[in-house]
Design a protein that fits this description.
By secondary structure, the protein is of the alpha+beta class. It has 6 helices and 5 strands. It has one domain: Winged helix-like DNA-binding domain superfamily/Winged helix DNA-binding domain (Arc Repressor Mutant, subunit A, Orthogonal Bundle). A hairpin with a 5-residue loop joins strand 3 and strand 4.
Length: 135
C-alpha cells in the first residue's frame, strides 16, 4: 500500500509512513522520531498521532510483542481487519501473511460467543528458515 492510495494523509502521516516503508522491518515510535527529527518532528506525540491514523487506515500494523510498527505488506488489510506475522527471534525478520482459515475460525468463534471483534493481529514467534538452516 502506498501513501498515494490515501491522498488525505497529513504531512506527518506521509513522513511516518515513508519512514516505515523504507525501513525493511519494524520500527519503534522513538526510532521513527529519531529518523524524522530533521523533518521537524520534536515530540513522540507527533509520531504516535500519525501512527494511530495509519493503523486506522490499515497502512501500518502494530506488533504488540515488539512494541513496534511495520508498514502493511498487503492491500486490503483495513477491509478485513486482520493481519498475521511470523517474527524470527534470531535475526528479527518480520513476514506478514494472511492465514484465512485461522482468521475464519476466530471470526466464527467470536460470532458464536457474541464477542464484538474490532481487530485481529496474530504474531507467531520462532526461527525463520534462513536462521534455522544456518545451524
Amino acid at each position: 500500500m502506498s501513501a498515494e492510495t490515501h491522498p488525505e494523509l497529513t504531512k506527518n502521516q506521509a513522513l511516518v509512513f515513508g519512514s516505515l516503508s523504507g525501513a525493511g522491518g519494524p520500527l519503534t515510535a522513538y526510532a521513527i522520531l529519531d529518523q524524522l527529527r530533521d523533518d521537524g518532528f520534536r515530540a513522540p506525540l507527533q509520531v504516535y498521532r500519525a501512527l494511530d491514523k495509519l493503523v486506522e487506515y490499515g497502512m501500518v500494523h502494530r506488533l504488540e510483542s515488539l512494541n513496534a510498527f511495520v508498514a502493511c505488506a498487503h492491500t486490503g488489510c483495513a477491509a478485513h481487519g486482520a493481519a498475521a506475522f511470523a517474527i524470527c527471534e534470531r535475526c528479527g525478520d518480520v513476514s506478514e501473511f494472511t492465514p484465512e482459515k485461522a482468521i475464519d475460525l476466530l471470526r466464527n468463534w467470536t460470532e458464536q460467543q457474541g464477542f464484538r471483534l474490532s481487530r485481529t493481529t496474530i504474531e507467531l514467534r520462532g526461527t525463520c528458515k534462513a536462521c534455522a538452516s544456518s545451524n
